[in-house]
Design goal:
Layout (H helix, E strand, L loop, with lengths): L2 H12 L1 H14 L17 H6 L11 E4 L3 H17 L5 E5 L2 H7 L8 E4 L5 H11 L3 E5 L5 H10 L3 E6 L3 H9 L1 H9 L3 E4 L2 H9 L4 E4 L11 H12 L5 E7 L3 H17 L15 E6 L5 H10 L4 E3 L12 E3 L6 H7 L2 E4 L12 H5 L4 E3 L7 H10 L2 E3 L3 H12 L2 H17 L3 H14 L10
Parallel strand pairs: 1-2, 1-4, 2-3, 4-5, 5-6, 6-7, 8-9, 8-12, 9-11, 10-11, 12-13, 13-14
Helix pairs in contact: 4-5, 4-19, 6-7, 7-9, 8-9, 11-14
């Protein structure tokens, strides 16, 4: 172990009590963080032993391990897993996560023989216990998660560890270059990296990663839930007015939106109550879907304190109920919300947070209005704008105006919707290409170098 990683290992070992305290605090709002805490430190209860025993029907002789840290990565992993299961019938999956929302979503992807646990904290001991317990034949990290001791542990045991659907923005590159003494060996220690874009690939090469190809973004291969999409469109057909969605909003963005609506209403209504938001002064129906479930109640209270009536998705029986604002307080139903909406304002892009994924909206045929901050999905955003499937604006006020204008213009909306669907279809294929790359790597895995880095 080199001196830099030795120092890092001491720091991560000493930080374990802080991690436990953080998990306890987060579990108050999100009970999932209190689940199976021992797994975070490479400690597994006896029932796990029966799940990890070899299977005679396992075609690869061990687990295919996929790490999807949070909700977005888990949804990308779902797309890749479908292609991997087609490539390797009978494959056994080891699925790991870092967040409660990721783990909850990941439960839906499990089949008999699969195992789901937390990714261990990046100490040498926890990593060693994890790898010794599960003996994966390959590890696939989704998008961004690279940990120094995890990489080193896999190399020491001859486990090919790859970064799939890799994205690496300028901010990540600058941070990695500041910590080059730790980051460069970690990225260089990967067996392969498959980048989303040429720009991602160039930045990853700059930090020493072995980029083996640019395969596109897995999320373009998403197939929206047909039942949800149909359900949303049916509800939209029964709604008298266009629906504009604030999609996957992040902290602070609902306040931006609300302030803009307040100003608009005050001007249009000459100081009358904000509760007239649904009058002719603003003839669209607003739907707000926060990105993180722990904020559902917070956002509801914010809207109600502003004098708005709120109808929550969790209480809908036969469909949306009349209210100033509909609140999407459910997980795993974005296809329904995009089907219900005419236009979406993309959350995370109106504050300097990097933007959320616009690809699912495009696959559902929902045009998108973006703010300035889309560095997490820079190329997808630029391509969508260039194709006419998305429109970029300078701030929330301009976003509200643009979204409402498009939603209220049936002819233009129909044309943009068609462009959006064509844009989504034109960029598919990353899942099958990544599965083929995994198969090729496994076929040559005996050549993977074991070292003592």
């Amino acid at each position: 172990m080199n001196a830099a990683r030795a120092l890092y290992s001491v720091v991560t070992w000493c930080a374990q009590p802080l991690l436990r305290r953080k998990l306890r605090r987060r579990a108050v709002a999100e009970p999932g963080y209190g689940q199976a805490v021992g797994e975070r430190f490479g400690r597994y209860p006896p029932p796990i032993d029966s799940l990890v025993s070899p299977s005679v029907s396992d075609p690869l002789g061990g687990f295919v391990w996929v790490h999807a840290v949070s909700l977005g990565e888990t949804r990308a992993a779902a797309i890749l897993l479908a292609a991997l299961r087609a490539q390797f019938p009978g494959m056994r999956l080891l699925l790991t996560h870092g967040t409660a929302t990721g783990r909850a979503e990941g439960e839906k992807l499990l089949q008999p023989g699969d195992v789901q646990v937390w990714l261990p904290w990046d100490t040498p001991g926890a990593v060693a216990r994890f790898l010794s317990k599960f003996h994966p034949v390959i590890g696939i990290l989704m998008e961004t998660e690279v940990w120094p001791n995890l990489v080193a542990g896999c190399r020491q045991r001859g486990v090919p560890l790859v970064l799939a659907n890799a994205r690496f923005n300028e901010k990540s590159l600058r941070k990695s270059q500041r910590l080059h003494w730790l980051a460069r060996p970690a990225y260089a220690g990967l067996a392969a990296v498959w980048a989303q874009t040429e720009d991602d690939a160039a930045r990853l090469r700059a930090i020493g990663a072995p980029v083996h190809g640019v395969l596109g973004n897995l999320k373009f291969d998403v197939v929206p839930d047909a039942a949800q999409l149909a359900h949303g469109r049916a509800w939209r057909a029964s709604t008298g007015r266009p629906v504009v969605l604030l999609a996957s909003s992040r902290e602070g963005e609902e306040t931006m939106w609300l302030e803009n609506i307040k100003q608009k209403m005050a001007s249009a209504l000459d100081g009358q109550a904000l509760a007239a938001i649904n009058s002719e002064a603003n003839p669209v129906q607003w739907l707000v879907v926060p990105r993180h479930p722990q904020r559902f109640d917070e956002v509801r209270q914010l809207l109600e304190r502003a004098g708005l009536s709120v109808s929550c998705r969790s209480l809908w029986a036969a469909g949306p109920e009349p209210a100033d604002v509909w609140l999407g307080d459910s997980l795993g139903e974005m296809a329904l919300y995009y089907g219900l909406a005419d236009v979406a304002l993309l959350g995370g892009s109106f504050a300097p947070l990097g933007g959320q994924n616009l690809i699912e909206a495009a696959a559902c045929g929902c045009p998108v209005v973006l703010g300035l901050h889309t560095f997490n999905f820079a190329e997808a955003a630029e391509r969508a704008c260039a194709a006419g499937a998305a429109q970029r604006v300078g701030d929330m006020a301009a976003g509200v105006a643009a979204a409402c204008a498009l939603a209220r213009d049936p002819g233009r909306h129909a044309a943009v919707r068609d462009v959006t669907l064509r844009f989504a279809a034109a960029h598919r294929g990353a899942a099958s290409a990544t599965a083929a790359a995994v198969a090729s790597l496994l076929a040559s895995a005996e050549n993977y170098q074991i070292d003592s880095c």
